[in-house]
Write a structure and sequence with these properties.
Number of strands: 0
Structural class: mainly alpha
Number of helices: 10
Distance between the termini: 51 Å
Strand content: under 5%
Radius of gyration: 17 Å
Helix content: 55-70%
Length: 206
């Protein structure tokens, strides 16, 4: 029965994770397709630049919940560690490669953060690191990428001290790998000094 519930949760999580809230709210409230602006991503950062902070906050909360809720459900049901880890990763896969918009999507930070917090709640404190990096550098992508490094390192240390399941370490590492992949263009621009800074408005994509 555990296998059946595990597979059901994983499949349902992919479908939930695939809901592109940036696209949905952009069309409903502003009448625009966020994918036609800025980076073309559907998540919080592009929503902030294109749709404004109010809608961006809503997008963040909904995307965060896409990662958090399935993991919490999996843990509450007592599913195996591997199933909970896969659920965490698949929520980010759904967000980044949504079946509803041609297998494209966001960059996974909010959804990945929700999933990671579902596995280890005090990782929410990393929001302080994100705020600090953005405040001092104005690079959201730098905050995202460095957080994706810190998270796996922290849980690896916990695993080595016997305080965190190995499967969940793999789950958080998998999430971090996806975030890195989705930010590969940002990393290249950071290295070349051409990355967009926080606060810049976005124009329609050419």
């Amino acid at each position: 029965m555990e296998w059946l519930w595990s597979i059901f949760l994983i499949c349902a999580t992919y479908l939930l994770g695939g809901i592109p809230w940036g696209v949905v709210l952009g069309r409903l409230i502003k009448g625009i397709d966020i994918r036609s602006y800025g980076s073309g991503a559907t998540g919080t950062t592009n929503s902030l630049r294109v749709l404004g902070w109010q809608i961006s906050v809503a997008v963040f909360v909904l995307d965060f919940a896409k990662g958090l809720v399935p993991v919490v459900i999996g843990r509450a049901l007592g599913l195996p560690d591997w199933a909970v880890a896969v659920t965490a990763v698949i929520s980010v896969v759904g967000h980044c490669w949504s079946p509803y918009i041609g297998f494209k999507g966001g960059k996974g930070m909010a959804t990945g953060g929700g999933a990671a917090v579902g596995l280890l709640p005090w990782l929410f404190l990393l929001i302080l690191w994100i705020v600090a990096v953005v405040y001092f550098t104005r690079y959201v992508s730098l905050a995202s990428v460095t957080t994706a490094v810190i998270g796996p390192v922290l849980v690896l240390i916990l695993w080595m001290t016997g305080h965190f399941p190995g499967w969940w370490v793999l789950g958080i590492t998998g999430i971090a790998a996806i975030i890195f992949w989705q930010h590969r263009g940002n990393i290249d621009r950071l290295l070349h000094g051409t990355e967009r800074k926080f606060g810049n408005k976005e124009s329609p994509r050419q």
